[in-house]
Design brief:
This protein has about 210 residues and is mostly helical. About 50% of the residues lie in helices and about 5% in strands. It has ten helices and three strands, in the order E-E-E-H-H-H-H-H-H-H-H-H-H. A three-stranded antiparallel β-sheet has the order 1-2-3, with helices on one face. Helix 3 crosses helix 6. The radius of gyration is 26 Å and the shape is elongated.
Length: about 210
């Protein structure tokens, strides 16, 4: 938000935005000052104005992720799992890069390295999370980056189709293991999953009412 102040020499305008150099201008009338402020702020919002390289150099992707984990993650239902995921991601080399150095290349390198050990769906979730972090930083925290680097990173193709079936003898071993579990709800849920092929998330949506009727 621009600050406009009356001076002896005219109307002074001051524009301060995080990630940009402060701008000052003195104009003869208040109307001219307001017009100049609107035009300059519009340029900043469009990403046309030059960014403050010093601020972007002093802030890393890891800094944004830690702030996101402190301020945004706790508001989500999946807070615990997201916190674990982000804590692991913070050890990646890309998180040590400043926002001025950040580009699609190191993120693509992270994707390729992770694909050696985890499934494409996991990578897709991680890339989506980084995308959200940068979007929040641009939209709510005043880091006016020209683009979101994640938008340029190709996401891995997800192929989750499975045709696995229980082999002879596996059902008996499964029932024997279920008989030893302390949670009385596990057995009916597992047997329902075997009969219907429901996913875990689908089973959880059924609610406790169905479980108690089994």
């Amino acid at each position: 938000m621009a600050t406009i102040t009356k001076r002896k020499s005219g109307w002074s305008v001051q524009i301060r935005r995080k990630g940009y150099q402060p701008e000052y201008c003195t104009l003869p009338t208040k109307a001219a000052a307001e017009k100049w402020a609107r035009e300059r702020e519009s340029e900043i919002d469009r990403g046309d104005a030059p960014v403050d390289r010093k601020t972007l150099l002093a802030t890393t992707l890891g800094d944004l992720m830690r702030r996101y984990m402190d301020e945004i993650t706790p508001t989500k239902k999946s807070a615990h799992s997201e916190q674990l995921r982000m804590t692991k991601m913070l050890s990646a080399p890309m998180c040590e890069l400043s926002l001025l150095e950040l580009s699609s290349a190191p993120i693509s390198a992270y994707r390729d390295q992770r694909l050696l050990t985890v499934k494409p769906a996991t990578i897709a979730r991680e890339l989506s999370l980084i995308h959200n972090v940068i979007d929040v930083a641009r939209r709510d925290w005043g880091y006016h980056l020209p683009t979101n680097s994640i938008a340029l990173v190709r996401k891995p193709r997800i192929q989750n189709a499975r045709d696995r079936r229980l082999r002879p003898g596996e059902l008996k071993r499964l029932e024997a293991a279920l008989a030893e579990t302390r949670n009385p709800f596990i057995r009916p849920l597992i047997l329902l999953a075997v009969e219907t092929a429901l996913r875990r998330s689908e089973l959880l949506k059924l609610g406790p009412g169905l479980i108690t009727t089994m």
